Amino acid sequence: MQDALVIIPTYNEIENIEAIVKAVFTLDKAYDILVVDDNSPDKTSERVKLLQQEYKNRLFLEVRKEKAGLGTAYIHGFKWGLERHYEYIFEMDADFSHNPKDLIRLYDACRKEGADVSIGSRYIKGVNVVNWPLSRIILSYGASIYVKLITGMRVQDATAGFICYKRKVLEAINPDDIKFIGYAFQIEMKFNSHLKHFKIVEVPVIFTDRIKGKSKLSSSIISEAIFGVISMKLKSIFNK
């Protein structure tokens, strides 16, 4: 078993899953992978099972009964990873919007440079996004500014989903207390890390929109993020 686990949540990622798994396993640094699949109709999990024959004891699979949201998939993965004593646990998308090579930079930020949470940030050096329409860039960038204003966090990319957490961070944040499932989940995890005074570092990355498959972004996820930030901030004030 390695010291680092990459959690990849999937729903209908049959076009991407084999390539992303192989890309991670060809890196110079060794990682284990946990795929958390929400019972994809396109049989993503069946492709993972075939890959497990090639990557025994490095590629793991958890299949849930139905599509239940990105946040709950990661929480499932966090619990799985903590039970198996991984020291560094990553969030990463299956669609190559996150470059697997950047896993090493996120790992080094925590392992060698003292960060407790390292974030693959699209906005630490300008706007590093490829193939997004202007409207989506404005929405995402605007959301991060909004989160900074409301929460007081000094995080440029609050909705980022490419992250490394040290084990102690996830142990300190009770996963069962995390309430949100979409963009707001990513914000809530960072906000809880901030409230507990963990060191958060942003590592500049280039985000490339998916080429294959369909985006899971929806209006309900955006709405959750807008109103969820306010409720998180109010809760933190009254719970002091």
Automatic annotation (TrEMBL):
The keyword Transferase applies. InterPro entries: DPM1-like (IPR039528), Glyco_trans_2-like (IPR001173), Nucleotide-diphossugar_trans (IPR029044). GO terms for cellular component: membrane. GO terms for biological process: glycolipid biosynthetic process. Keywords: Glycosyltransferase, Transferase. CDD domains: DPM1_like (cd06442). The keyword Iron-sulfur does not apply. Residues 6-172 form the Glycosyltransferase 2-like domain. One of its GO terms (molecular function) is dolichyl-phosphate beta-D-mannosyltransferase activity. Belongs to the glycosyltransferase 2 family. This is Polyprenol monophosphomannose synthase. It comes from Lacinutrix neustonica.
